[in-house]
């Protein structure tokens, strides 16, 4: 099998996988921070609501969540589903799922910061927003980076679950080509793609972690 021809056939799926990856991070990272704030809120109904949300997102399969996001509008509200909604549903499903995981990572990092730092910032005249984003958040990022890296690496592999909604990402195309040509080569190519993608992510996150290591 011509390797270049195979790569050309898989190129579209590679781009879709990369799009799912970056869009998920773009939306889930800030959403996760908002959910973490809600989880730590002293307003009990909000805290309980976000706690239930996190529990549901972490306690049910991502595959099932994707199907609910895609078919839910039709079965619950009677809204006609457009074929173009498939990729949108995948992005929504991934974003709300990973936001729950990132929310707990954020919460752990924020709660690990000594209370004395908040008090010191208040004495220096910082308001709550300034205290968080200028003093607390930079420290939180350094603390949570290893956990975030693990989730990001998992996300690379989870992009293959888009096949549930018939979105032609990398793994879906590899299966189709392998079935048509009765060859294992497309699967090997897919494995190499995921490995290299993960390797790039791991190296980038390691470089970022070293850059944030204030003690060296």
From TrEMBL:
Keyword Cell membrane among record annotations: yes
ABC transmembrane type-1 domain mapped to chain residues: 14-205
Phosphoprotein is among the record's keywords: no
SUPFAM superfamilies: MetI-like
Residue spans crossing the bilayer: 12-38, 59-77, 83-103, 184-208
Biological process terms in GO annotation: amino acid transport
GO CC terms: ATP-binding cassette (ABC) transporter complex
GO molecular function: transmembrane transporter activity
Subcellular location: Cell membrane
Keywords: Amino-acid transport, Cell membrane, Membrane, Transmembrane, Transmembrane helix, Transport
Membrane topology annotation: Multi-pass membrane protein
PROSITE patterns, per the entry: ABC_TM1
Domain of life per record: Bacteria
PANTHER family, A to Z: L-CYSTINE TRANSPORT SYSTEM PERMEASE PROTEIN TCYL (PTHR30614:SF0), MEMBRANE COMPONENT OF AMINO ACID ABC TRANSPORTER (PTHR30614)
Family of this protein: Belongs to the binding-protein-dependent transport system permease family.
The protein's name in its UniProt record: Amino acid ABC transporter permease
Organism encoding this protein: Mediterraneibacter butyricigenes
Taxonomy of the source species: Bacteria, Bacillati, Bacillota, Clostridia, Lachnospirales
């Amino acid at each position: 099998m011509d390797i270049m021809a195979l790569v050309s056939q898989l190129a579209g799926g590679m781009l879709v996988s990369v799009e799912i990856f970056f869009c998920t991070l773009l939306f889930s990272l800030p959403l996760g921070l908002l959910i973490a704030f809600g989880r730590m809120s002293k307003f009990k109904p909000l805290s309980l609501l976000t706690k239930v949300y996190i529990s549901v997102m972490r306690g049910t399969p991502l595959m099932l969540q994707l199907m609910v996001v895609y078919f839910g509008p039709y079965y619950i509200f009677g809204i006609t589903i457009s074929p173009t909604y498939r990729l949108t549903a995948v992005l929504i499903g991934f974003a709300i799922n990973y936001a729950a995981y990132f929310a707990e990572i954020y919460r752990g990092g924020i709660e690990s910061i000594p209370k004395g730092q908040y008090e010191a910032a208040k004495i220096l005249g910082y308001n709550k927003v300034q205290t968080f984003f200028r003093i607390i958040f930079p420290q939180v990022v350094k603390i949570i980076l290893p956990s975030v890296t693990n989730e990001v690496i998992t996300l690379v592999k989870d992009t293959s679950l888009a096949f549930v909604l018939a979105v032609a990402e990398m793994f879906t195309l590899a299966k189709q080509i392998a079935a048509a040509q009765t060859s294992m080569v497309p699967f090997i190519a897919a494995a190499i793609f995921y490995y290299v993608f993960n390797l790039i992510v791991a190296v980038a996150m390691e470089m970022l972690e070293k850059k944030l290591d204030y003690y060296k």
